[in-house]
Amino acid sequence: MIPILGSNDDGVSRVESLNLDELAPGTVHLLRVHLGQDGLGRAIRAPVMVARGRREGPTVGLTAAVHGNELNGIPVIHRIMDRIDPRTLKGTVVGVVAMNVPGLTLRQRRFADGVDLNHVFPGKPRGTPAEVYVHNFVQRVLPGLDSLIDLHTASFGRVNSLYIRADMLNPVAARMARLQRPEIIVHNPPADPTLRGTAAAMNVPAITVEIGNPHRFHGDYIRRTVQGVWAVLADQGMVPGRKARQDLPQAILCRRSYWLRTDGGGLLDVKPKVAQMVDKGEVLALQRDEFGRTRFAYEAPEHGVVIGRSVDPVAPMGTRFVHLGVPAEPGEFAVADGSGD
Predict the structure, then answer these.
(1) For residue 130, is it within any domain?
(2) Could you state, in chain order, the average pLDDT of each consecutive group of 10 residues for the chain (341 residues)?
(3) Which single residue of 47, 170, 177, 204 could bond 97 by disulfide (Cβ 3.0 to 4.6 Å)?
(4) Whole-model pTM?
């Protein structure tokens, strides 16, 4: 093996917090931001890339791996930063390559203490390890952002379409969502203890982009997400724009969504694919016992679109098996973002 760099820290600055005003314009900065300490007192530092333009403009944040096994956002940030020319960039792009560092290194969804970080925002200065870590992230990284794109994937044992959760009554969030050109958009006001909810409470419009599947790099969805993020940056005049792809179908806009759960345990066979439309009464899944006898047949309770689905055949009682989106009526979320429905 021939090393490209002398060490992982070559050209990387260690900082206690992200202070954009201290970073020189016209370059891409590689940082490790201190967010906590492990059980031996060693610093836990999140890798952050900052493209600082020479000209004033908006500051857009990108976050990946809030869940440690959700990896697709990492190459999205890498590719965006590779494409940006900071000499001509107008504004700043902040890319948090891996927010949940312990979860990623442990190859698990949750934080080191077993807590889902996206359920404890904005954290606490004196709380559990996860709450303190999240608090430090909110205080040290989020200030200064004008908007946020939070990059996720499906959870273990499930697969997702390329879809977005956003407050479609917020013109800025709605426009960012549509510019992504996903398969599905779900209206989802961020009144919850998530990163997106905390950003919104700080008056930072934010969207959540679900990029396919966990524990892998999902190539096609990564490419489409890079194009979508670039479209958001171009729309704000930060980078040169490109004509939107015309071969992509219009996103299905949903007024709400919910998960269907199994009524009992058994071996599960989910029928529809992600992004597939289903009719009320259509059989979505069969569940069999250990002898192959059908125990349950699950039907769609209403017309909708499959946003995500289970791929794990072993399904105890209460297992989520289909994430069903309920399509919006035409014009239901028409907002003054210049894009229409």
Answers:
(1) yes
(2) 53 94 96 95 97 97 96 96 96 98 94 96 96 98 96 86 95 95 94 92 96 81 95 95 64 96 96 97 97 96 97 95 96 61 42
(3) 47
(4) 0.92
